[in-house]
Amino acid sequence: MKRLHLAAAAALAALVGLAVAPAFAAPNAHMLQDSNVRKTANPNSPVVNSVAAGQLVTVLDCQGTVCLIQIPGPDGWVRQNRLGGLGKGGKPASNVPFSFSFGVGGDGKPSISIGIGNQPKPQPLPEPEEEEEDQVCFYKNANFNGASFCVEPGDADDELSGSWDDSISSIEVFGNADVLVCRDYELEGICADISSSKASLPKQLNNAISSYEVN
Questions:
Q1: Where is the signal peptide (predicted)?
Q2: Which domains does the chain possess?
């Protein structure tokens, strides 16, 4: 019976060992030179393993000038300046520096950042475009030239007087404004609803507008 119990205990221990054995994460660095692997972050702690130059390793943590690496056999600590980054395809690249940081993200969860070289600076966000003010501008000459005046939605003139009566040749519309223009007073006669800029007005309205209403 004792032998059976011992065999069962050994089997259970093997199962427990399999259950708690850490899975190897993908390598994120390589060794720049042969190094001893120490038991703790203390540089005077016992040597528990060794790594060769060019060997791929997985960095789990860094404290000061030393980093904890995961390798076949006992894991342990090496000097950070002996670690290099990985290039394309996860291959060692001597010109790619290695950096490691550990912190807490905005969601309160641990956050690990591993740098593998000079990253491009983030591009500044484009400035938001200012919205055009809704308005309509009238010009005495074509192509938005000559004397002018501007009005906003809600403005109206049932009887243009003075030098502006029958003197408008182009209309510029901004934003979401639109304007009703008519040949006669009181918004009578031939009218047109204009919702986009007109560098030159049609013949029946050119130099013939006598009233308007902006919406």
A1: 1-25
A2: 23-115 (2.30.30.40), 135-214 (2.60.20.10)
- Compute the distance between CA of residue 178 and CA of residue 132 in angstroms, rounded to an integer: 13
φ/ψ (deg, to 5) at 113: -125, 125
Strand, helix or coil for residue 109? coil
What's the token pair of residue 80?
A: 């950070």
Residues whose CB falls within 8 Å of the CB of residue 147, separated by 6 or more in sequence, listed in order: 139, 140, 163
Q: What is the DSSP letter of 33?
A: S
Within 13 Å and on the Cβ side, how many CA atoms surround 193?
A: 3
pLDDT of residue 16: 39
Higher pLDDT, 90 or 57: 57
* Per-residue model confidence as pLDDT tens digits over 181-199: 999 999 999 999 999 999 9
- Mean pLDDT across 151-165: 93
Q: Can you point out the beta strands (E) in the chain? A: 29-31, 35-38, 47-51, 56-63, 66-70, 76-79, 83-84, 99-104, 110-115, 135-141, 145-151, 156-157, 170-174, 179-184, 188-194, 211-214
